[in-house]
Structure formats: structure tokens, C-alpha cells
């Protein structure tokens, strides 16, 4: 008589998990491959048309560089002069000129492009973005060893819509993603350097402001982190005063938040922004409320989040802290477009690293959902995209207290 060997429930359970994990990986391979082809084709199609290049945000950056070259930085925020310069650059009159909304020192970074033709400058910046992605991939390979066991891991950035859109729009989000990766690397053991790197996010003041308190709370050595932030912010501000003068710098918040509308656009263009206003605006509008009510609710939510993080910070693994920090910063900011979500590439990598290490199919499916979400090409999807992303960000604060399930490979910073 043949004896049948019994399979323990624990072994059977593990076998089922492995089975689902393999299925999840197959879906991830398919999703990544298909999206890579779609977004690569989109980049090639969009940038083959000069009209799309002329409408890109790079025009505003390039214009600021010409102000530096022509020693006109005192007029950097002169809107009619910005429009005039853009008409000269493109050789035609623009109906809707692109406004330069950034701090004065940002114009220095684009001075190097001002000596060449606008279209060649855009191509040069596109190449810089591409090599920045290559550098990001190289750092991921060194710092997230589990990720590289996935054969197509290097396609992940190119399968992510915000990265493709950043390249099409001539935006700086890919460069900021590299900075965010470096902050993740150094935040725990080199807080001063982390603070110095965070000061670079002044290029997007809304992210700098909303991210700073959370980054401060998750810092182990807060005084060194604050020291790095203050020193380098002081340097950037000093450069700004030199370029445009003290009065222009003092008036900058009014110029960028209200006159030209980061807050205004967040409220009036809620269907193209990917922030909390996208969720709140249609609801508040139905109740007869307006911008003040939306801002009050957002402020209350943000303060409550900071209070909760302060109380629970020691129970949340650093990886989860950083995932939540990145997503919450984007969602809470007044001005978050799809290309800004390029920053979520880092949380995607962290989640993938955890998923492969623990063979967690749930994290793989979560990863695929996050890859697909920040996509305004899907009609009327912004409300759901923001709401789901916000819930995911919150879950890494409220749910991720089980450290053994969430730890990634240690970074071993020397």
C-alpha cells in the first residue's frame, strides 16, 4: 500500500503565495513592457512636432536663461518683457506666453542653454534628462539589490507616464527625482547633506514647503538637517537678491502664489492638477463653498497628519516613512501636475524592493496600480487617481507598523 505524504497547511500556504507571486510578476512584466512601448512612442511622436516643443515648459526656463545672458535679471518677473523675449526666441507672436514662476537662482541653471538655438537647447536638455535617468538606474542597482533580480527592472522609469511627460514638457522633475533619491540615501546618517539637498527643492516651492515638516519629523538628527536646509536656503536667497534685488524677492510669494496663480490654478484647474484640491473642489463647489473652505480643509488635514506622524514616528520603518512623505507632499501641495509625480519613482522602487525580498504579490499589484494612476490621458481619472494615491500614502503611516514585513535591504551608508 502506497503511503500518501501529507502536506502541512503552512507549506501549502507558502506554495499558494509563491504561485500568486509568480502570477503577479508575469503581470508586472507585461504591464512594464507595454507601457514602455506606449510612452516611448508618445515621446517620439510628440517631440517630432516643433509645436509641442514650443509649448513646453522649457520655454520659460530658457527665457530666464536669456535674461541672465543679457544682464536683465532685475526684470526677470516683468511679464510683458518675458512675453516679448519668447516672441523673439520663437520668431512669432505667442497667444499664451509661458510665465517664469521660479525663484531667481533657477535662471542661473539655464544660462548654459541661452547661447544656443532654442530647439537645440531643448534637445540638449532632453539628453541631460536621459542621462539623469541612467544615473538614477545606476544608483538603484547599487542601493536596491533586490530590484535588479527582475530582468526588466531598468525599464521601470521608461514605463512610468510622469517620466515620459517630464521629457515631453521639458520639466525638471527627473532631476528632482535624482535629488530625492540622494536624500533617501543620506537622510538617516548624513542629515546635514540631506538638508542641503532638500534646499534644491526650492525650485518647486510648494513641495519644499509641504515636504519640509515631514522630512524634519523623520530625521534622526534634526538640528543637522535644519542646519543644512538653512545654510543652503540662505545661499540661494542671497543669489536671488543679487540677481533681482531685495524688493522683487520679497514680492515673489505674492507673484507666484496669487498673481500668477499656483493656488488660483489649483482651484480653477482642479481637473488637470493631481492634488487634494482635485478631490475637494467639486465637492465644496456643490455645497456653495469656495477657495477659502478648500484651503481650510487642506490645512486641517495636513496639521492632523503632522500630529499623527509626530506621535507614531518611531513605529514606522524608514522606508514606509519615505513612501508616505513623497506621496503626501505631492498630494497636499497646491500645484502638482502629472509630471511632478515622477518623484513617485522612488516609492515605486522601494515597494518593488520590498516585494521581491518578501515575495509579496500584494505589493507587486500595488506597484502596477501606482504605475498606471498618475495619468491624465485617461479621461476624468484625476479624482480617482489622487484619492487612491492619497490612501496609499496614508496607508504607509497608519498600517505599516509591522516592521518585519516592510524592511528593505539596509543601505549601509558609510
UniProtKB/TrEMBL annotation:
It comes from the Bacteria. Its main location: membrane. The chain crosses the membrane at residues 20-47, 122-140, 152-184, 196-218, 225-250, 290-309, 316-335, 341-356, 377-399. GO terms for cellular component: plasma membrane. Keywords: Cell membrane, Membrane, Transferase, Transmembrane, Transmembrane helix. One of its GO terms (molecular function) is hexosyltransferase activity. The keyword Cell membrane applies. Coiled coil: none annotated. InterPro entries: GT87 (IPR018584). The keyword Plastid does not apply. It is a multi-pass membrane protein. It is found in: Cell membrane. Pfam families: GT87. Belongs to the glycosyltransferase 87 family. This is DUF2029 domain-containing protein.
Amino acid at each position: 500500500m502506497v503511503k500518501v505524504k501529507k502536506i502541512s497547511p503552512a507549506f501549502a500556504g507558502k506554495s499558494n503565495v509563491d504561485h500568486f507571486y509568480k502570477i503577479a510578476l508575469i503581470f508586472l512584466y507585461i504591464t512594464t513592457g507595454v507601457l514602455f512601448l506606449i510612452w516611448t512612442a508618445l515621446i517620439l511622436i510628440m517631440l517630432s512636432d516643433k509645436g509641442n516643443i514650443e509649448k513646453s515648459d522649457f520655454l520659460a526656463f530658457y527665457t530666464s536663461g536669456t535674461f541672465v545672458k543679457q544682464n536683465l535679471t532685475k526684470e526677470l518677473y516683468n511679464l510683458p518683457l518675458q512675453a516679448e523675449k519668447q516672441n523673439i526666441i520663437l520668431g512669432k507672436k505667442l497667444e499664451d506666453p509661458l510665465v517664469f514662476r521660479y525663484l531667481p537662482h533657477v535662471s542661473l541653471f539655464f544660462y548654459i542653454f541661452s547661447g544656443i538655438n532654442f530647439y537645440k537647447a531643448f534637445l540638449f536638455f532632453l539628453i541631460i534628462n536621459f542621462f539623469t535617468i541612467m544615473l538614477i538606474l545606476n544608483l538603484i542597482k547599487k542601493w536596491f539589490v533586490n530590484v535588479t533580480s527582475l530582468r526588466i527592472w531598468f525599464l521601470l522609469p521608461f514605463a512610468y507616464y510622469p517620466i515620459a511627460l517630464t521629457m515631453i514638457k521639458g520639466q525638471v522633475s527627473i532631476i528632482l527625482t535624482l535629488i530625492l533619491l540622494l536624500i533617501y540615501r543620506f537622510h538617516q546618517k548624513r542629515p546635514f547633506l540631506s538638508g542641503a539637498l532638500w534646499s534644491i527643492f526650492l525650485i518647486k516651492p510648494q513641495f519644499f514647503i509641504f515636504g519640509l515638516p515631514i522630512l524634519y519629523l523623520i530625521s534622526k538628527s534634526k538640528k543637522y538637517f535644519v542646519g543644512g536646509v538653512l545654510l543652503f536656503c540662505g545661499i540661494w536667497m542671497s543669489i536671488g537678491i543679487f540677481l533681482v534685488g531685495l524688493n522683487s524677492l520679497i514680492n515673489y510669494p505674492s507673484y507666484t502664489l496669487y498673481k500668477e496663480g499656483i493656488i488660483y490654478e489649483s482651484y480653477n484647474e482642479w481637473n488637470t492638477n493631481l492634488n487634494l484640491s482635485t478631490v475637494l473642489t467639486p465637492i465644496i463647489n456643490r455645497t456653495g463653498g469656495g477657495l477659502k473652505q478648500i484651503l481650510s480643509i487642506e490645512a486641517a488635514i495636513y496639521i492632523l497628519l503632522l500630529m499623527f506622524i509626530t506621535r507614531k514616528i518611531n513605529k514606522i520603518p524608514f522606508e514606509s516613512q519615505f513612501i508616505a512623505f513623497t506621496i503626501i507632499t505631492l498630494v497636499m501641495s497646491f500645484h502638482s501636475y502629472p509630471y511632478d509625480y515622477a518623484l513617485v519613482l522612488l516609492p515605486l522602487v522601494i515597494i518593488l524592493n520590498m516585494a521581491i525580498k518578501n515575495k509579496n504579490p500584494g505589493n507587486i499589484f500595488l506597484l502596477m496600480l501606482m504605475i498606471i494612476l498618475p495619468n491624465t490621458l485617461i479621461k476624468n481619472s484625476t479624482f480617482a487617481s489622487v484619492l487612491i494615491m492619497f490612501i496609499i500614502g496614508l496607508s504607509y503611516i497608519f498600517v505599516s507598523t509591522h516592521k518585519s514585513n516592510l524592511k528593505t535591504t539596509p543601505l549601509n551608508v558609510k
